[in-house]
Amino acid sequence: MTDDTTTTHATAIDPQDLAERQRAARALMLRPLLTAHGPDADDLRLVRRHQGELTKMFAEGLGYRLQVDPTSARLYKAGLGADPTRPLRRRSGAPFTPRAYAFLCLTVAALTRARSQLLVDELVQQVRSAAVDAGMEVDLDGVADRRSLHAALLVLVGHGVLRERDGDLEHWVDQRTQSLLDVRRDLLGQLVSAPLSAARSPGEVLEQAALPSAVGGARRETRRRLLESPLLTLEELPEEHAEWWRRNRNRERDWYDSRFGLQLELRAEGAVLVDPDDGFTDESFPGADKTRQLALLVLERLADTVASGGGGDDRAWRAIPSTTALDQSLEVHRTWIDRLRRDQREDPDGAVRDALEVLVRFGLVRRDGAQLLVHAAATRYAPQVTLAEASTTGERSLFDDTGDAGDEE
């Protein structure tokens, strides 16, 4: 069988078919469970139309399994293991707490033995029973646990596993409103992406889900990294994966472009994957949020500092003393204070702390003892950055990037 890294496209490809496959592949990466009801319906039709090509592409190129049914499509992705940067979120935007995750697991367990249609109070009783079986103490008469359970229910509604037929689930926490829920058992069975029978801890579940294929391990895992997180830092790869990347990186451009419509930029520190349409992302940066906008302004200052410091090597991370980074961040806050929210104006330290947390979560800065490390990709958001010395390899460095700010995948 020909390695798909070297496959050429000598035969003519219908542009419409290509665009449809790319759209379907992107949809599956962004939403691995597509259903026939709601906003996924059009994408599901494309997945069904190109099922054969997509199944082969995901299996050979990424080691992912695609299951397509008449009313759903499920892409079983391996994920990136213990990655804390992409939690489930409540509607408020707050990340799930461990308690909320526990209630999500209890609810899934309860639904496996529940009727296909039930009242929300019946489901609550089933969750209590599942908690007893798991040896977990819950207080669903208390508002804290009710909120955690409510967040779990809304996630399952969002995935189509639960559907509110009648009632007012939105106000169930505070007003104890009643709702009649339909349970999609066919979707419920597709939620978990790793076998649970052999796992004895959450960590083992993550390890099994992220296990690379024995065949094409370096190729598949490296591609997964770039598709799930747009930065590939060469110095952070295992040596065998880094060696594979050095040999094949130029040929990889065509793979990302033809399968997903993404552009691969090769840099001295590794690579960055860019979507020209700014749509292949689960979270945009900076967006309209004032904290993220402050984070962007802080990042510009930090990127300018590390880039103007020179250092003609290929290191992806460059350091600033934490005290210097904090002083510069507070200076940015003072400069833009009139554009910030009232709470940010009244609490500069808190506002800067939240802004830096955003940058940590997006992988653009990293704390390291008394230093703050800034990734070379930070300069993609800093159009006025001072250019650093040329890389010793002769390639452009991400620290040399003076392009306009924009969303990353």
**How do the helices and strands follow one another from N- to C-terminus?**
HEHHEEHEHHEHEHHHEHEEHEHHHEE
**Tally of alpha and pi helices:** 15
DSSP, total strands:
12
Largest sheet: 3 strands, antiparallel
Taking all residues together, what is the mean pLDDT? 84
CA(first)-CA(last) distance: 32 Å
Helical/strand content category: alpha+beta
Question: Helix amount, in percent?
Answer: 40-55%
The backbone outline, from C-alpha atoms, is globular
Number of domains: 3
Strand content: 5-15%
Strand order of the largest sheet: 1-3-2
Q: What does the radius of gyration come to?
A: 24 Å
Low-confidence region ranges: 5-10, 383-390, 402-409
InterPro entries: CHP02678
Protein name: TIGR02678 family protein
How would you describe this structure in keywords?
409 residues; alpha+beta; Arc Repressor Mutant, subunit A; three-stranded antiparallel beta sheet; 15 helices; 12 strands; 45% helix; 13% strand; globular; disordered C terminus; CHP02678; TIGR02678 family protein
Structure characterization notes:
There is one protein chain. With 409 residues, this protein is of the alpha+beta class. It has three domains: 15-78 and 212-274, no CATH class; 98-188, Orthogonal Bundle (Arc Repressor Mutant, subunit A), CATH 1.10.10; 290-400, no CATH class. Helices cover 45% and strands 13% of the residues. It is built from 15 helices and twelve strands. It has helices at residues 15-30, 41-49, 51-62, 98-111, 120-134, 143-158, 172-175, 185-188, 202-210, 217-228, 239-260, 290-308, 322-335, 342-346, 348-361; strands spanning 33-35, 65-69, 72-76, 117-119, 162-167, 179-183, 231-233, 263-267, 270-274, 317-321, 365-368, 371-375. The strands form four sheets. A three-stranded antiparallel sheet has the order 1-3-2. β2 (65-69) and β3 (72-76) form a beta hairpin. α10 packs across α11. The longest helix is centred in the middle third of the chain and has 22 residues, at 239-260. It is globular and about 65 Å long. Mean pLDDT is 84; it is low at 5-10, 383-390 and 402-409.
